[in-house]
Amino acid sequence: MSFKSVAAKNVMAGVMTLALAALVLVSLTNESFIRAQSPQSAAPPNLRLPDETAGVDAIAQTLISAFDQVDIVELGEAHGRFRLDSDLRIAMVRNPDFAKKVRSIVVEFGSTTEQSTLDRYIRGENVSRAQLEQVWKTTTQAPNGIWDQPIYADFFAAVRDVNSKLPADARIRVFGGDPGPGDNRSRENAAVAVLKEQVLQKHGKALVIYGAAHFYRTMPSDYLSSLGEDIGLARKLEIDFPGRTLAVIPVGRLDPPPAWVTRGIDPDFQKFDRALKTQVRPVLVSLQRLPFRDFTAEEFLGRTLTTCRGAGGCVSVFQGSSLTLGQLADACVYVGGGADVDSKAKPTQ
């Protein structure tokens, strides 16, 4: 065979290899696109949760047990609009099993630059009220006044009390995740750095307490594009630590509806109630199961995450979106259609 014939064959083989690679790439891309658009749950692949867990103490125990399957439990809150948020996280840290499995908690209502103050307080040292307040008053969200609600100081006090009964090497440490003065990282980059350096790289486990929207696994693309670097803690952690987080969000009626929402879909909580087996509230519901998996985010979360950038007033970021609860989170704590609400809570955008 001539040199030209060999060269031609080699060129043809190279072209076919490239074509095959391109075909595989397109196939994988299309498959990823289909998965991304599918209303299936975003839960870690091997995660198993009970369909329903009713009552604060039982929910706390179930979430603590989930640490046997994941390293991070992301417990979303409604920034003081539900008293349940406070009751549940305190029930978790007071449960004797918590400190046996988890030694780290990362909170939105503490700044990275006041970590030494927070450490001293949580260890049980004497810290004045004025000093302690700097932990949350130096956060980026302090001007909103949301952290001045007593429930946030109550949480620090609960962890301090739990630690007072534990040996020094078994105590829980609380980390502020919000960048304080002089910390130029974005809000979520600071939190992810704390989790990586203090927990995940040390093969530890952590409870993370932030506003629920930080734990949404996806959001409408136009809203995501407006967020800059802070696209969600759950999304960021999945990049380097896939399948190691459990995202739990609150769902329930905000009564009265937030004043900054001017229009949107009124959620049909009776539909949610009818699909549940238990009548006890609150109830932890797996969003891997039907029909909850396919309930739309626009209906049940539309009043909790809004944008006021348009000319028509404040509207849900999910307006017109087909995203479902199962795509946004792994489980929800459902408080019912008549939640205990602090109507003075302020929004954060």
Overview of the molecule:
There is one protein chain. The protein is α/β, with parallel strands linked by helices and 349 residues long. It has one domain (42-336). The protein is 38% helix and 15% strand. The protein has helices at residues 3-37, 56-65, 83-94, 98-101, 115-123, 129-137, 150-164, 187-198, 221-224, 233-240, 269-275, 297-301, 325-328, and strands at 52-54, 72-77, 104-111, 173-178, 206-211, 245-252, 283-286, 306-307, 315-316, 331-336. Strands 1-7-10-6-2-5-3-4 form an eight-stranded mixed beta sheet, sandwiched between helices. The chain has a two-stranded antiparallel sheet with strand order 8-9. β8 and β9 form a beta hairpin. α2 (56-65) packs across α3 (83-94), α3 (83-94) packs parallel to α7 (150-164) and α5 (115-123) crosses α6. The model is unreliable at 1-40 and 339-349 (pLDDT under 50).
Considering DSSP H and I runs of 4 or more, what fraction of the residues is helical?
Answer: 25-40%
Question: How are the strands ordered across the major sheet?
Answer: 1-7-10-6-2-5-3-4
Low-confidence stretches: 1-40, 339-349
* Domain tally: 1
Could you outline the blueprint of secondary structure elements for this entry?
Layout lengths: L2 H35 L14 E3 L1 H10 L6 E6 L5 H12 L3 H4 L2 E8 L3 H9 L5 H9 L12 H15 L8 E6 L8 H12 L7 E6 L9 H4 L8 H8 L4 E8 L16 H7 L7 E4 L10 H5 L4 E2 L7 E2 L8 H4 L2 E6 L13
Parallel strand pairs: 2-5, 2-6, 3-4, 3-5, 6-10
Antiparallel strand pairs: 1-7, 7-10, 8-9
